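Hi V.,

You were right to ask for the full record rather than a summary. Here it is.
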Amino acid sequence: MNSFRLFTYSVSIITLFIFQINCKWTNTKVPYKNNNNNKTWKQISQYFVPPEELKNKYGEYRSPLLFENGDTVRIKTDWEKRRIEIKKKWMELMGEWPPIITNQQMEIIDTIQRENFIQHKIRFFWIPNEQTEGYLLIPNKKGKKPAVITLYYEPETAVGLNNKENRDFAYQLAKEGFVTLSLGTTKTTKNKTYSLYYPSIENAIVQPLSILGYAAANAWEVLAKIDNVDTSKIGVAGHSYGGKWAMFASCLFEKFACAVWSDPGIVFDETKGSSVNYWEPWYLGYYPPPWKGSWSRNGEQSKGLYSTLKQKGLDLHELHSLMAPRPFLVSGGSSDQVERWIPLNHSIAVNKLLGYEDRVAMTNRVEHSPNEKSNRVIVQFFQAFLMKNNK
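Predicted structure:
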């Protein structure tokens, strides 16, 4: 082997070694590769393509591929710097998270056998000063399994214990072989403060929607300690309030492999009224209580961070871009109609720069509520990206 070939070979080995270490540090495997012969992928591939009239339409949303100083992101290494810049900016605005709770010790409260899975009622710390209870569903089949955390107002709905039609995401996924963990803000839902407040509702130092994302990140750590869970294949999903929660969790915590956001209102839109109400004090408009008439409040009247975000011209499409190249599905309803492809095109552009396609998907229905068809695509999406031999 001559000296030039030896040098080239050595550089290749070192580069591969560094790449493998980097993947280990970020807990991210080499991104998914399409399998066009896969039946599941063929069934959902249509949802990764915007309508012809909306392709390459970006609207007035500022491109995530522009640095704060106006310079353009041109290559992959530029994007890594820009990605850090976006996350740092949003974290500073919303409040920095406490350290992730990595030494999780889950407590099992109750266990029953249901159909083809075991249901555990569990308890763990999801923020440093507060425990929560949820439901862990583990399929009977042996071996490592993918997992999905589901988020809603309370944990019973997603496991099918509340008879709320088509909101039983955790139950449906568990029957298909996924480990699922269903969580909800039961206590604050009952008292109509709805969210989490750290360290207290009187003096929250992190916007409530962001601390919800932090709580879901700690739930990821719970799942990661379960022997039969594949930690490289943990997703997150939620509907409406849970959709907002899942969106912030997946965008701000890189260990989530993929995500489904069911009709959360993926960008700010005051024309949608109370359904896309990020100005509320339990989302991005926190101020110390008492809160009066907050459901009728609009963005201009907001006392919290929301009005600042609007004044700065910021919108949630920047957070979406933090998912790249991890895939996500918007299961759109009345809050997220087909025109939402315009902000989603910015995430498509980021993925294209990184060399990836088929990372951004959307389905659309008329009603806010999920239906059998939209739920079938949700299951197929997780099968395609988390199940072995699918995608």
